[in-house]
Amino acid sequence: MRHAPPAKISEEPKTDSSMQPPNHFPAIRRRMLLPLLLLAAGLSARGAVTPDAMPLPDVPAAVAGATRAKYVFLFIGDGMGANQRLLAELTLNGAKPPAPPAYRKLLMNRLPVTGLVNTHSADSWITDSAAAGTAIACGKKTANYVIAMDAAGKVPFDSLADAAQARGMRVGLATTAPLNDATPAVFYAHASNRSKLADIAKQAAASSIAFFGGRFKECDDKECLKEFRGAWFRPEKTEADRTQPYSVDRSGGDTPPLADITAAGIRALDNANGFFFMVEGGKIDWACHSNDAAGTAGDVLALDQAVALAVEFYGKHPAETLILVTADHETGGLTLGRAETGYSIHPKFIAGQKASAVGLTKKVQGWRAAKKSFPEALTALRSEWLDPGALAADETKALTKTYNEGQSAGEPGKESGLDPFAVACIKLAARRAGITWGSGNHTAAPVPVTAIGAGQNQFTGWMDNTELSAKIRALLAG
User: Fold this and answer.
1) Are residues 105 and 211 both part of a single domain?
2) What element of type H or E holds 461?
3) Using CA atoms, how far apart are residues 121 and 58, in angstroms rounded to an integer?
4) pLDDT in tens, 95-141
5) CB atoms within 10 A of CB 42
6) Predicted TM-score of the model (pTM)
7) Structural domain of residue 178, as residue ranges?
8) What is the secondary structure of 11-53 as a DSSP string?
9) Do residues 76 and 137 share a domain?
10) Beta strand residue intervals within 167-255, DSSP E
11) 439 CB-contact burial (10 Å; exposed 0-12 / middle 13-18 / buried 19+)
């Protein structure tokens, strides 16, 4: 996996009058076009320090115990439990844990305050992202699949975005999943079911959100989001373009990574009244649904790069900034260890994987189209994309059969049409690494929250996700 340093926000972008949004654009189009222009002006320049090596400033006691935060960053790794965070860390360190200071630790895992968050919904011990997001955004439990409303889908809830805007703060939302998917939607929309994507997207267009970073899904109505045309990312109708690529699949021509979007969002939101900025690593969840360890680890690392930009901002406003990193739920029942590997984990099999299940599916389909035999495909796999280790005779037989049959896998998860050979190779690499997946769905496991900055002391202990919300709301209100 490739690990790039974070974008920088410290240098002012240079713009000229030709790069400013025309006055005749609708207001919502102007507020989304500006971040695109900032990015085009060079805001995505890379720094030299990776998040795991980034120094953390000390937090004075008065700041840690503050009752007001002017700048609030809420990072949500969708599906990112404690083991997802540790998996990403293992790929940075190798087979044996090095002694400090050689041990490389995620920046989000080095934040000085840690708590645990329960995630159940109003009607199930295992939540979906709509109910979990509603609890975080609105401070109230609801049923699974409901967006920012009561369990009956009748009474709308106010969100943290509403609370921030009531104080004159700007609000921004960014994600690698669709912007009208459950987690971002709970901050600006109300729907009795998260599947009402076109209606949710229209509510985005009518909202007062100052910054959207990402793409929308299923905007087929001609009137749907017409104001967004030419904005950060155009709403796409094709399935392939509804989200950003997995971090491990990225190439130079891809859309901006989450860190670059976060950098531009900070520029767009920064003002004297403060801001609330929710940034979601949305496809961590998608990778976990597919039991794709490398896809998971890569997107956790990408989220950590975005966190680094918030920490950089914190260094400029240490008395007024709060940074929180948490998750809406855990996905996949990820366990770091399995019987056949004993007390050993071998992260090289994950760190060496150069494509997600989606990316590898495209490669395998290309090999078949080129009439590559199984031995040729296996050679290409080992040399460029993934090393499944030495194969036993039964493994070779099973992989040969899977490659030659070549039909789409009926695997659980959000990624349709995964090639069964790609899936089999990724599962084999996980077994070699000593990684076990217990589910293709969400679990009831509690998730971590880590914090730094104004009011950080409030986020210790074991809390409900509605309590997490209440603490943030109180700090916004001051």
Assistant:
1) yes
2) strand 461-464
3) 36
4) 888 998 899 999 999 999 999 999 999 999 999 999 999 999 999 99
5) 12
6) 0.89
7) 68-335+443-477
8) SPPP--GGGSPPTTS-HHHHHHHHHHHHIIIIIT-B-S--GGG
9) yes
10) 170-178, 211-215
11) middle
